[in-house]
Amino acid sequence: MSSSFKQGIHPRYKEELTWQKPLQKAQIPEKVIIPLQQHIGAPCSPLVQKGDKVQKGQKIGDTEGFVSAPVHASISGQVKEIKEIRLPTGERGQAAVIESENCRAKESLEQLKIPFDPESAAPEEIRSIIREAGITGMGGAMFPTHVKLNIPENKDIEYFILNGAECEPYLTVDERVMMEWTEEIIQGMKYIMSALKVKKGIVAIEDNKQEAIKIFRDIAADEEQIEVKVFKTKYPQGGERMLIKAALDREVPEGGLPLDVGVVVNNVLTAASVCRALKEGMPLIERPVCVTGEALEEPGNYIARIGTPIKDLIEQAGGFKSKPGKVIVGGPMMGVAQPDLEAPLIKGSSGILALPRDLVEVSAPLSCIRCARCVDACPMHLMPTKLMNFVKEDMIEKAEAMKLESCIECGCCSYVCPSRIPLVHYFRLGKAELQARKRDKDE
Ligand code: SF4
Ligand code: SF4
């Protein structure tokens, strides 16, 4: 029987647009834009400058900051400039623009050097290659993976959970990867489990992915350390806290991390990238991405080079049927609407979603009718109405006392609100304001 966490919502999933579309290689772009920060933590400094020739796989940005991950050229070519751009996350940052020099046919990979046998490698050796490959969480969070696998001495990790829940509506890329890259995912999972020194691995899948469930159950039958657990299809099932609650009935403490309850969670694509880095010396220079939405001619699942402009991927999906109402990087619940389509695909971009106007046109919000639907939907058991009022009234300290920072910005409250109040926007603003005030206090 499938289980779940409390609260959450059942949005329209719309996976029928792409779930049966196999992964296909996107065209190699003429130009890529590689942001120097594609992770949570310290931005990289460029290792190249304008005019330099670079090879696919070459490291072009790095830093000594511990919480960080290097970036690599995803095509061979010449660095045209290093400039500030708007990232698909909405932030601004430096990026290296690389143009191909019609040498795609000769393009060879600058591989990572693996000076040990990955099958018998020590945890620190595995982490060192994961770092050199620039691997970050690929489900959207972009937390550097080698840091996540570096467990403080006072913590014991009992379980590794492989996150194949993919709960955002429309997105099907994790599901396709689970069906098509199963061996790499399992191998990557084993490397991660060795790095963590854990003996119990759980593959977590939602019950709307029946083919993937069957494939993984067949494999797990021969793997003593790996168990497949199936969960009810519900948003946000893929959130780490929700997954841990559903899989192990453990609650991550407020302000804490999964490792506080003996668990590490990684996305299926992250595991596949770990396998490619350790087995093939492949840095993270491409990723599968779901290019979808009713505004596109031919939605599909593509393997695209990091740094590919979003507009190129939209063209490959047949272009727009009509002028879209909104283009989002990520899913409809937690993704970021794009003001233009020049922004590049980055390591955490699991989807590009183009929605027609009639699906995004919303009338002005009405007053709160105190129906409490937002309270019933919140997976973090918060009081969205009260939080909103405190943020609106600039009473940030009161919002903090009511656990504003526990909000995971899942958008469930906004989704169910009959008055169409964009609650989650208030919480993003409130959290940013709270952080700014804390920084000011520290200075
Ligand atoms: S966005 Fe925040 S307040 Fe709203 S449902 Fe999600 S966690 Fe709760
Ligand atoms: S769901 Fe909307 S209308 Fe209902 S209590 Fe929450 S904010 Fe108010």
Layout of secondary structure:
Elements: E1 23-25, E2 31-35, E3 45-46, E4 53-54, E5 59-62, E6 71-72, E7 77-86, E8 92-99, H1 123-132, H2 145-148, E9 159-164, H3 173-180, H4 182-196, E10 200-206, H5 210-220, E11 226-231, H6 240-248, E12 263-267, H7 268-280, E13 286-292, E14 300-305, H8 310-316, E15 324-329, E16 336-337, E17 351-356, H9 357-360, H10 373-377, H11 384-392, H12 396-401, H13 412-416, H14 423-442
Parallel strand pairs: 1-14, 9-10, 9-12, 10-11, 13-17
Antiparallel strand pairs: 2-8, 3-5, 4-7, 5-6, 7-8, 13-14, 15-16, 15-17
Bound molecules: iron/sulfur cluster (SF4) (2 copies).
Residues 377-378, 380, 382, 384, 407-413, 423-424, 427 line the site of one iron/sulfur cluster.
Structure notes:
- With 443 residues, the protein is α/β, with parallel strands linked by helices.
- Among the domains are: 168 residues, NADH-ubiquinone oxidoreductase 51kDa subunit (Rossmann fold, 3-Layer(aba) Sandwich), CATH 3.40.50.11540; 70 residues, no CATH class.
- 28% of the residues lie in helices and 20% in strands.
- It is built from 14 helices and 17 strands.
- The strands form 4 sheets. A 6-stranded mixed beta sheet has the order 1-14-13-17-15-16.
- Helix 1 packs across helix 4, helix 3 runs parallel beside helix 5 and helix 4 packs across helix 7.
- The protein is globular and about 65 Å long.
- The termini are far apart.
- The model has no long low-confidence stretch (mean pLDDT 94).
- It binds iron/sulfur cluster (SF4) (2 copies).
- The site of one iron/sulfur cluster (SF4) has 15 residues, from helix 13 and helix 14.
